[in-house]
């Protein structure tokens, strides 16, 4: 259950809708689902398997598996890459979680009761984002709560709390969904999410879809290795991974079907960016009977979901420090917490850091880490070790996972990374054009060449090439 809590968090309810909105809707959603099935699930199985086999922190687990497979200990660098990615993500993740805490209080105080789109937009842009000290306070509170839990051990009480939190979050999403169905522009929302316009898709869009799959499943950041180390031998890794993927994807789609009809009904642009959830959900709760109570509880549960995911982001670093140095767990947690607090503070006060952290971690480091895990599981780790850990799979099921992890998953990740970075590109005749040196690449200055998370959205979309200090919806 703790692993499920890691996967289900802000990535589903906050990030998936706005990333889908920025990247064309239906076609992006389809590619995202393909990435979950072909790339995400095989790597998730492999990462949990490595963690359970190692029964230690991700770094030590990789060393153990490499040693038993007669491979270089340098493969432990995969875990280090994941730990670094997790800390970078936590830097901006804790900032967004702080926004959630602020909205929890605002909903409880009736801030959005009967509010229209202008009131909600003003609160997000001119009250919250305009007040750096307020953001710093909430960011600090969230980081402190996360560090306090990590100092006492990740397992204690987390699984039981998630067993209660997950169903409640799902119920409140359903309440919001039915409001959206009745009061929102539901037909347009469904059309936006599921009618695929592939003219809006390019290599970078595929990279972002794959990065979202990695982000929302907590892949490539060593988190699932850490949770795998706690998994009993009697548990089925494959079944656990499938359940995580189904729950994770289901909640993401439900969030999209809840948010986009509200967005269209109130004339909000779906490409508003990271503020999309904070503009749409207060409108829904603020205008429904009992919305103050439902809205407060919704943001409380989103905060808890964010907290459980934040633990998974930081746990690998804390576990490595406490198990490989003389530092005890509380001191290790405090040190790591100080690092992510500093990173989050930089996101508040330094222009563009939020967007750069998000793009580099989600779309470069996580896919790269997942690629290394797939290569290790498919080509380096002895087959008999994998077969033993996945013993509940039939002969054909194991071979399907093994072939996918060995061939299709790595090729897919490599292809997307090569095309999206411009190392390999299609010319106008659709023939492959190899670039000898990435340094010689001169990307055309177009909307498509600007990472969506690095562009500030505007009503006319003409400002998409101007960097934003913090991601903000158009005022």
Automatic annotation (TrEMBL):
TM segment ranges: 25-45, 74-101, 136-155, 162-181, 201-228, 240-268, 288-321, 333-354, 360-380, 400-424
Region entry Disordered, spans: 455-475
Coiled-coil stretches noted in the UniProt entry, renumbered to this chain: none
Keywords assigned by UniProt, alphabetized: Membrane, Symport, Transmembrane, Transmembrane helix, Transport
GO CC aspect terms: membrane
Presence of the UniProt keyword Kinase in the record: no
CDD domains: SLC6sbd_Tyt1-Like
Keyword set includes Transmembrane: yes
InterPro entries (UniProt xref): Na/ntran_symport, SNS_sf, YocR/YhdH-like
Composition-biased stretches (Low complexity): 455-469
SUPFAM superfamilies in alphabetical order: SNF-like (SSF161070)
Subcellular location: Membrane
Membrane topology: Multi-pass membrane protein
Major localisation: membrane
Cited Pfam families: SNF
GO molecular function, one term: symporter activity
Family statement: Belongs to the sodium:neurotransmitter symporter (SNF) (TC 2.A.22) family.
Protein name, UniProt field: Transporter
Organism: BD1-7 clade bacterium
Phylogenetic placement of the source organism: Bacteria, Pseudomonadati, Pseudomonadota, Gammaproteobacteria, Cellvibrionales
